[in-house]
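Whiteboard transcription, Tuesday session. T.W. wrote the C-alpha cells on the left side:
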C-alpha cells in the first residue's frame, strides 16, 4: 500500500526521453496481471497479457493507453490493435479554454452591471490555483497530492492566524498546525495518509471531507500528472496543472 509521510521530502529527478530511445510508461491500473500502480514499464519491452488481462498506462505527454489481452508486443507497438489510446491532455486543454472563456464573459457582464453580481460558486470555480497539487481545505471530494513532495494545504482567501487540523476517519489520528495570518498555503502537519484514504480538514469551525489520491514519484511530467489526476477524479487540479503549462 502506497503511503505519503507528510512533512518529508524526497528528491525528484526529471528526465526527458531522446528521439528514438525507449520511454517510460507508468502503470495506472492493472487487471489480472502482476503490475503495481505507479510501476514503470519500458516502451520497447514486450508486454505479455493473457485473455482477460488488462493494463492502463500513462505516457510522459499525458496520453492514456489501455491494452487488453491477449497481447505480446511492446506497449506502443502499432500492432496493439486490441488497445485504445486517449489524449486526456487535449480534453483538459479544451476544458481550460472553455472555463477561461466563461470567466471573460462573466467579467464583461459584471463590468456592464448585467445580470447582477456573479454567483459565489461561479467565482470559486474559476479561482486559479497557485500550486495544482496543494490540497484545498475548503472543498470536499477527491484531491491529489504528490508522494515525493511535502503535502501543502491551501485556502483561496488568506485569513487570520488559526489552527488547522487533519484527522483520519473516526479521529483515530489527528494532527494540528498553525496557519500564519495572511498566508494562503501552509505545510500540512505530520501524518501518514494512504492512497485513497479519507481525511477531515478543519479550520475556523468549518470542515471538509477529502479523499486523498497519491500521484507516484514515477509520474514525473506535469502532463502525466494531470492525466493521472483527471482519472482519479481530481479534475480541478488537473485543469490547473494544464492551465499553468500554457500548452
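and on the right, the sequence the group agreed on:
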Amino acid at each position: 500500500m502506497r503511503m505519503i509521510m507528510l512533512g518529508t521530502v524526497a528528491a525528484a529527478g526529471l528526465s526527458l526521453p531522446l528521439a528514438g530511445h525507449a520511454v517510460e510508461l507508468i502503470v495506472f491500473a492493472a487487471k489480472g496481471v502482476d503490475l503495481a500502480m505507479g510501476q514503470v514499464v519500458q516502451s520497447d519491452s514486450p508486454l505479455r497479457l493473457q485473455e482477460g488481462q488488462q493494463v492502463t498506462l500513462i505516457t510522459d505527454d499525458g496520453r492514456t493507453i489501455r491494452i487488453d489481452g491477449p497481447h505480446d508486443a511492446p506497449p506502443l507497438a502499432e500492432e496493439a490493435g486490441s488497445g485504445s489510446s486517449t489524449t486526456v491532455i487535449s480534453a483538459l486543454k479544451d476544458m481550460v479554454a472553455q472555463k477561461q472563456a466563461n470567466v471573460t464573459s462573466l467579467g464583461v457582464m459584471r463590468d456592464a452591471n448585467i445580470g447582477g453580481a456573479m454567483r459565489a460558486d461561479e467565482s470559486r470555480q474559476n479561482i486559479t490555483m497557485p500550486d495544482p497539487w496543494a490540497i484545498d481545505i475548503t472543498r470536499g471530494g477527491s484531491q491529489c497530492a504528490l508522494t515525493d513532495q511535502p503535502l501543502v494545504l491551501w485556502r483561496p482567501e488568506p485569513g487570520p492566524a488559526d489552527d488547522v487540523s487533519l484527522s483520519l476517519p473516526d479521529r483515530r489520528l489527528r494532527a494540528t498546525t498553525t496557519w500564519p495570518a495572511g498566508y494562503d498555503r501552509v505545510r500540512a502537519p505530520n501524518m501518514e495518509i494512504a492512497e485513497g484514504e479519507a481525511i477531515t480538514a478543519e479550520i475556523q469551525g468549518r470542515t471538509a471531507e477529502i479523499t486523498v489520491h497519491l500521484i507516484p514519484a514515477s509520474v514525473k511530467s506535469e502532463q502525466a500528472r494531470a492525466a493521472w489526476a483527471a482519472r482519479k477524479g481530481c479534475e480541478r487540479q488537473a485543469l490547473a496543472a494544464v492551465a499553468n503549462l500554457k500548452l
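Someone added at the bottom: Confidence is low (pLDDT under 50) at residues 1-19, 78-82, 103-127.
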